[in-house]
Design brief:
76% of the residues lie in helices and 1% in strands. It contains 13 helices and two strands. The protein has a two-stranded antiparallel sheet. Helix 4 (82-108) packs across helix 7 (185-232) and helix 6 runs antiparallel to helix 7. The longest helix has 54 residues, at 242-295. The N and C termini lie far apart (56 Å).
Length: 408
């Protein structure tokens, strides 16, 4: 059985096929269900299995793992080598942010269903083969990007596990009650297995809470491109009466309101999750760069580089999409202005002017209602990593850690 049979939504459908924008979130929502934060199945047996799985995954990955890092530092800080400590610390900050994002999505998860219902309404406006082709391509691209995220995150978890096995220590040396990995090889492998399960679950969760904006915004951009063509064609049909042209204009206004409603539905989730990630991305990248440059061996460098790639994926692609989204909105205003409005009646012209003013306000997402999500914001956040690296370099913290570890 090929990939096309296993994952059909990854492949672009013919232009003649009907449009289903919600297919862009098919694998995303399936994975969110596996995160254990959706309504359990009604079947008694499946209900019990789902609740048990949700409890195990979220206990290990969402709730205990961040505290396991902190307790491990308090109880065994002196036993960490500098590279091991930084490997653990860079993930600890990301684990706290991941848990916070999972809780935000958990609280607001029904908004994904509401957004998909709005997708269904937008699909009703897609009539031409070229328009269907745009949406089909956006759907397949969204699903492929989701699997790219999944691959990068799982590669990070696996390479870190392999690197830890080579070095003979658990991945992050978290604290687990009644376990002392130094006491025996059995306890070492039990702790390593627990840490890998928790990190695998956290990566699985991270994929969902980091990739969902892309899975929703890419199809939205396809709908905006279709809407742009529709606006540009207003008033050009010589067979239409004045009343029919005005009705088409009103339909476009309603379509635009539907697009804004779609964005408003997702805005609270995006605002919370991106805000949390932008707060920690600079610090996490700073620790990772220090580890790569000063302490990591070859295996640890591979794991750290895969971690850095995963961290950059958490914010950068969506920030780029937000810039494109703002440009798409400005194109809508240009398209309406280029339509055949100048020869219409007074009522039509007044409505066009009011609509034009509305279109000139771009769709903007904010992080925590504090700052605009854009490439500039992402660059400012990631630049903080160089400040962290410079501070550590100037204060000779790395040399002191190495000296202390050598003396012990």
């Amino acid at each position: 059985m090929g990939l096309r049979q296993l994952f059909p939504a990854m492949y672009t459908l013919p232009d003649k096929s009907s449009v289903e924008s919600r297919q862009a979130t098919l694998y995303l929502l399936n994975c969110i269900f596996l995160m254990g934060i959706r309504t359990p199945p009604r079947s008694c047996c499946l209900f019990f299995i789902y609740v048990l799985w949700s409890f195990a995954l979220n206990l290990c990955s969402t709730f205990y793992q961040p505290f396991g890092f902190m307790i491990g530092y308090v109880s065994h800080l002196s036993e960490f080598a500098p590279g091991e400590f930084l490997t653990s610390l860079q993930v600890a900050f990301n684990a706290w942010s991941c848990s916070t994002k999972v809780i935000i999505v958990w609280i607001l998860v029904k908004r994904f269903d509401q957004a998909n219902a709005l997708f269904d309404e937008l699909d009703k406006q897609v009539l031409e083969p070229a328009e269907r082709g745009r949406v089909h391509r956006a759907v397949s691209q969204s699903n492929r990007i989701f699997f790219v995220y999944m691959s990068v995150y799982i590669i990070y978890a696996t390479t870190t596990f392999i690197s830890a096995c080579i070095n003979g220590v658990p991945m992050f040396q978290n604290y687990y009650p009644f376990l002392d990995w130094r006491a025996s090889r059995l306890q070492y492998w039990i702790q390593s297995g627990l840490e890998y399960f928790a990190m695998f679950g956290a990566c699985f969760q991270d994929v969902c809470v980091d990739c969902y904006p892309i899975n929703y915004i890419l199809p939205l951009r396809a709908h905006l491109a279709n809407f742009e063509e529709r606006l540009r064609g207003l008033g050009h049909d010589p067979l239409e009466s004045a009343e029919e042209r005005y009705e088409k204009l009103i339909e476009c206004i309603k379509h635009h309101k539907l697009i804004l409603s779609f964005c408003d539905t997702l805005r609270p989730i995006i605002s919370g999750t991106i805000f949390v990630q932008l707060l920690v991305v600079g610090l996490v990248l700073g620790f990772t760069i220090i580890n790569i440059v000063m302490f990591a061996n070859f295996a640890s460098r591979i794991a750290a580089l895969s971690f850095m790639t995963a961290v950059l994926l958490e914010t950068t692609p969506f920030c780029i999409l937000c810039n494109y989204l703002a440009d798409d909105c400005m194109k809508l205003a240009d398209a309406l202005f280029e339509s055949n409005w100048i020869y219409q009646d007074e009522r039509y012209k007044k409505t066009v002017l009011q609509f034009l003013q509305s279109l000139q306000h771009p769709i903007v997402f904010t992080a925590g209602n504090v700052f605009t999500i854009s490439v500039a914001t992402n660059l400012n956040a990631t630049k903080f990593s160089f400040s962290v690296f410079t501070l550590v370099k100037q204060m000779n913290i790395a040399e002191k850690l190495s000296r202390n570890n050598g003396a012990e």
